Amino acid sequence: MAVAGAIIGAAVGGWMNDRYGRRSAILIADFLFFIGAVIMASAPNPAALIIGRVFVGLGVGMASMTAPLYISEASPAKIRGALVSTNGFLITGGQFLSYLINLAFTKAPGTWRWMLGVAGIPALLQFIFMLLLPESPRWLYRKGREEEAKAIPTENLPCPRGINTVMYYSPTIVQLAGFASNQTALLLSLVTAGLNACGSIVSIYFIDRTGRKKLLIISLLGVIISLGLLSAVFHETTSHSPMVSLVETSHFSNTTCPDYSATAKTERWDCMKCLKASSPDCGFCASPSNKLFPGACLVSNDDVKKSCHKEGREWYTRGCPSKYGWLALIGLALYIIFFSPGMGTVPWIVNSEIYPLRFRGVCGGIAATANWISNLIVAQSFLSLTQAIGTSWTFLIFGVISVIALIFVLVYVPETKGLPIEEVEKMLELRAFHYKFWEARPKPSEKGSAA
Last residue of a domain, which of 316, 340, 374? Predict the structure, then answer.
């Protein structure tokens, strides 16, 4: 519901940016986010919680396209990329902080209310600080308020205050890799969030030195390699999972997985087949001596889970024990290391630079809306895909999409490093699209001399 709200927020935010200005749009986004956090923290029922999520989504969608645009228009060209990347760093740093907060509140009374409610604090702080900042000088200029625009010292403006599926589901991916404990999964996810934040720092340093396009290409090449590694590791994990033992299963009386009891060829059952049973859901209780040895296939519920843990065994419901689990973590870490400095920040920078001033808000809104729609599709389909075709094939599909993205970047994306926004607009006006490649149009004088 938060992502659905973000789609609407991004779409409305584009129109609002052009109509009322960048600063006003950020203030409204902060207000919506704060209200959403308060509603979620005090929610008396699921319906209220959903309403709060929608409010938060509206604010996130609006801010996601407005903040980079505001920073870009108020920054000098030589450090514009670094400042917009700083925005990305603060977002990823916030994600890292959220994992720490969640970890701290796991044992607190009213745990989830604190987790959701504390999100209102940064929104309130940004609302207060935004009141001290001026409107975008370029927006003022477009509205005919030239004297106000000239009076703003753009050289000294501070900047206010992504992969999403991997960040949403990183605890789940860790469990799919064979780490059973929820707390272990959360701790390892904290590491991935930290890597994501560190990647944004790399982007701040290189974006105005290396350029936008090179960072995108390097990023996508690394992402493709990482997804290939993840696909291979999960293939090995699923095809070499521990077997189900009739003796181990019989040890837990009256809790055997019904599908396992009904089959005649129990010797062919392994952990993965046990977890795919659906009448009802089943779990795998690993061997107490070695989790890679044959274990028990049991009905999945809290009582059975406790019985399994009492004997010093690990309980698995998402992924199976595997000796390749650490390789999956390495693949996940590499994915984030490569994604964050390039694909995590550069698209927002390029989108804030390439559109004509008169359409910049609307076009940025369209781009952000497309981003959030894609985000919703991937977020809602990820778990279903892992169950339907397996984790390995799911990551392979993402890898193919990344290859297509690499081709797109090589063919279509222009380099805007170091150019004032007005110069970027002029550069693109002189370009024509021929045979799927950008080519410079000949100037009028060149046409005459050629004739």
Answer: 316
